[in-house]
Amino acid sequence: MPPPDQARSDAAATRPPPANATQQARRDWLAVLAQAPRASLARLAPAAVAGHAFAWLRRPEIGLVMLRGRIGNSGDRFNLGEASVTRCALRCEHGGAVTVGLGHVLGRDEQRAEWIAALDALLQQPALHGALMASTVEPLRADLAAARAAEQARLAPSRVRFHELQAEVAR
After folding, report:
1. Which of 67, 133, 161, 165 could form a disulfide with 80 if both were Cys (CB 3.0 to 4.6 A apart)?
2. Which residues lie below 8 Å from residue 88, measured CB to CB, with a gap of 6+?
């Protein structure tokens, strides 16, 4: 077992650096875009990205990532398994500002990665940000919340509440 000072420094080294407000906002919309159901993204993304020119920096490519876990969320790391991911990067110029959009999705869906990268690039444009948040990201966030609520409602009847169980009486 490492000394307490060593354990503290190891924990600090694995923690991500504090993000500024812009980085946190981008992290938030990318999480919504990556987790959004494909049907919702297909309904909203094409209209949002239409009429904008993009240049590929990295075309969509499919690869594998190693999923890692921690015992008890703070213990030793272990390899959980592999998962396929699709990623791409593109550049957008709008009103003299050039932005780079990144798209990462779990699974093998090149179109979703393209939509996410295009929306990411456009959301970084100050002139387009507010309108895109209202017309695309917030409806996707609502769809995601509705899907989670429906899944929780579906699973609720099978939930076991151990603290409500009665102890067996020995006979």
Report:
1. 67
2. 56, 58, 59, 60, 61, 102, 103, 110, 113, 114, 117
Rounded to an integer, what distance in angstroms lies between the CA atom of residue 150 and that of residue 42?
21
What's the pLDDT tens digit per position in 33-79?
Answer: 999 989 999 999 999 999 999 999 999 999 999 999 998 888 899 99
Contacts of 138 (CB under 8 A, 6+ apart): none
Q: Following CA atoms 128, 131, 132, 133 in sequence, which dihedral angle do they give, to the nearest 10 degrees?
A: 120
Estimate the crossing angle of helix 38-49 against helix 110-123, to 10 degrees: 50
User: What is this structure's pTM?
Assistant: 0.78
**Are 59 and 36 contacting, i.e. CB atoms less than 8 angstroms apart?**
no
